[in-house]
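We emphasize that the prediction below concerns an isolated chain of 157 residues; any contacts that depend on oligomerization or on bound cofactors are therefore not represented. The input was used exactly as deposited, without trimming of termini.
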Amino acid sequence: MEMKDEVRIAAPRERVYAALNDPEVLKECIPGCEELTKVSDTELEAKVVLKVGPVKARFAGNVTLNPENPPEHFSLQGQGSGGAAGFAKGGADVVLEEDGEETILRYEAKADIGGKLAQLGNRLVQGTANKLAAQFFSNFAEKVGAPQPEHAAQEQA
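Result of the prediction step, given as a token string:
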């Protein structure tokens, strides 16, 4: 399964990059995330509850970050196990491009699944993955994006 998209975030690239490396920010933005622990500068452990169609499972897994060219580019690899529900593993490449005071975040991700999840059908799994990715980036953009100054909001009223 493959996904790619781009998101505009109303914040400078350095702030976006820092937030992508902040476990507290990520925990608040990842749908179903119960726990996210920073093991080292490049390793995170997570516990996430997800529902895909009729299958609901608690996944425990780890993510390894590879900051190749910060803050412009980094990649990550991860894997998680949901017990009888199955497993998921994959990775993503992320590019952060400055655009004035904003940042354009582009990502390409690949994932493989197995177990009961793989039996649900590609359309359902892909749809759920797209929905979860959109929810994460919406949460992330809202949390990290610069709040609108009060005087600008009043001028528009």
